Amino acid sequence: MGYEILPKIASRKQMYSQLDLAINNISQEKEKKDEENTTSQRKYLKALIIESNSTINQISPDPNIVFLPTSEEDIKILQITRKDNISYSYLDMLDPRFWILYSLDTSEDIKREVKHLIVKNNSRLDYAWFSSSLLQSISSRYSKTSFSMKFHNTFENENIPMKKLAIRLWAEDASEIIDNLLNNDYIGKGACISNIEIEHRSRPDSFVKTRLSMEGSINISNGTSVDEFLDYQQKIVQGHYKPIVEHIERDFTTNFSLNEGFSINGNLLSIKLQQKISNIERVVNDILKGIHPFRFVGFANKISDEDYLLNVLDLHTFSHFDLEIYPDEIFINLPQGSCGNSALRLFALCQERIDPKATLRGDGNAIIAT
């Protein structure tokens, strides 16, 4: 019933044709369910953004995953076996730094496989981390048809008046509702946007409805053509996310010089907190556990109760950098050649777990304008 799985393909043209069929089928299924007034679970097309510092030949997938070739080097088919079922997803590596994985598998299944690829095999892969600030910035020019907010006061910060916040809301246009929640004296302290759904139109007679999440997953729930989705995806990855990563790597890394004496060149990043951290030691210990989602290990040097200096090993790229944590600010010293995506991961998680109103700054200016 319907377009349940993606078939094998041999070229980019065939891939786009199959994605177009999937989007049109999703729209037809939605219309059918609306007419029948049913609430059964629908299957969405998903595009998962993967930040890469590897080539495909350096990836060691789980035994249930096989990379199948196509006629084009920058497209692979992921053949995934789960018990007696085989599914196919498409891995597009046209941009070698930012891969896109297209799938009709359930969100639970495909996200589990992606997590294994990123976390479990020293792959030098990472999620694309869309912080609450970045989701607000991207969606600012669109009507928002649904959104979620999720905040977990993981470090028991006494300056945040809640332990958890979880909100999911649908509306014809939720823009004003989001603004009211963000500016609410109580809820606003935990109002961290975790995903947001918009309707994108590049021309009046065509559209795509998509939901973008914090970890770079895009769900397509309705639409008329793959062209609309590719236009939106291009704006998200090439127009928003990639320039921020490259800006950090180009302008906010440091290096040392011994020419004519010792000197330090470059600029630091910082995460400026609106709500002070009440227990820095707890934050330090949790950040350096070496597990998902932070994926940092290292050593902490306590300068004072309100000043910790961390030497960090990033398990994404296995590179070192320094953090200095104060109650109201976290300084990030990335050596030249570091991965800017690691800073965006730290910032997104700080907004989700420490302070949703935190800002990422460099040279006194906000890196992400909201």
Q: In brief, what are we looking at here?
A:
The chain is α+β, with helices and mostly antiparallel strands.
Describe what you observe in this structure.
The chain is 28% helix and 35% strand. It is of the alpha+beta class and 370 residues long. The chain folds into 3 domains: 12-127, no CATH class; 132-250, no CATH class; 252-366, S-adenosylmethionine decarboxylase (4-Layer Sandwich), CATH 3.60.90. It has helices at 12-36, 107-119, 132-139, 175-182, 226-251, 280-287, 340-353; strands spanning 45-52, 65-69, 75-82, 85-92, 98-103, 125-127, 144-152, 164-170, 193-203, 206-213, 217-223, 254-257, 263-266, 269-272, 296-304, 307-314, 319-326, 329-333, 359-362, 365-366.
Task: Record keyword descriptors for this entry.
7 helices, alpha+beta, S-adenosylmethionine decarboxylase, 370 residues, 20 strands, 35% strand, eleven-stranded antiparallel sheet, seven-stranded antiparallel sheet
SSE order: HEEEEEHEHEEHEEEHEEEHEEEEHEE
What overall geometry do the principal axes of the alpha carbons give? globular
How much β-strand is present in the residues?
25-35%
What is the gyration radius calculated from CA atoms? Answer: 21 Å
Q: DSSP helix count?
A: 7
Ends: how far apart? Answer: 43 Å
SS content category: alpha+beta
Largest sheet descriptor = 11 strands, antiparallel
Helical content band: 25-40%
Give the total of beta strands: 20
What is the count of distinct domains? 3
